[in-house]
Inverse folding.
């Protein structure tokens, strides 16, 4: 469950990033309703991803789509999918991108499987939503602390 503090921190951060966006009380209530079942860690990771990639104030669906689902394959599961795939077209996009980075599906069959597994897992971590969100989760507390340190000063200068 996302805490009130995590959701308000996210909203304040977004407001600072997109200062022309008016955030009404009803808007905040809607974000709470939609994001109430998201963990604080997932919310923080999605927030950082939104800060890095969104051009406009993120709507709840943009935040939710950045949170890994339980259906997203882990690196090991993705590697297994590659080993059993007959062609690259049947694989999810993140797996295709990871495979492309290591030389394609044929590289798994032509090279040392242990080295290719290691290379694939590293590439998949970079390409997948799960990997990106996990990296952002690690960065989020420090980034939020830096942002929140400056927001009160910005609010004081508004009036």
């Amino acid at each position: 469950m996302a805490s009130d503090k995590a959701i308000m921190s996210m909203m304040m951060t977004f407001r600072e990033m997109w200062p022309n966006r008016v955030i009404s009380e009803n808007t905040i209530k809607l974000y709470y309703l939609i994001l109430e079942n998201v963990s604080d860690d997932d919310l923080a990771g999605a927030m950082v991803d939104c800060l890095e990639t969104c051009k406009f104030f993120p709507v709840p669906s943009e935040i939710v789509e950045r949170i890994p689902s339980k259906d997203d394959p882990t690196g090991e599961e993705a590697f297994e999918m590659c080993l059993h795939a007959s062609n690259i077209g049947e694989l999810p996009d993140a797996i295709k991108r990871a495979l492309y980075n290591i030389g394609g599906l044929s590289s798994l069959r032509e090279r040392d499987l242990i080295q290719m597994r290691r290379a694939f897992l590293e590439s998949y971590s970079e390409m997948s939503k799960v990997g990106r969100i996990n990296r952002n989760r690690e960065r989020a507390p420090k980034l939020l602390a830096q942002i929140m340190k400056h927001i009160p000063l910005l609010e004081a200068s508004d009036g």
Observations:
- The mean pLDDT is 81.
- Residues 129-158 form the longest helix (30 residues).
- Residues 75-127 form one domain.
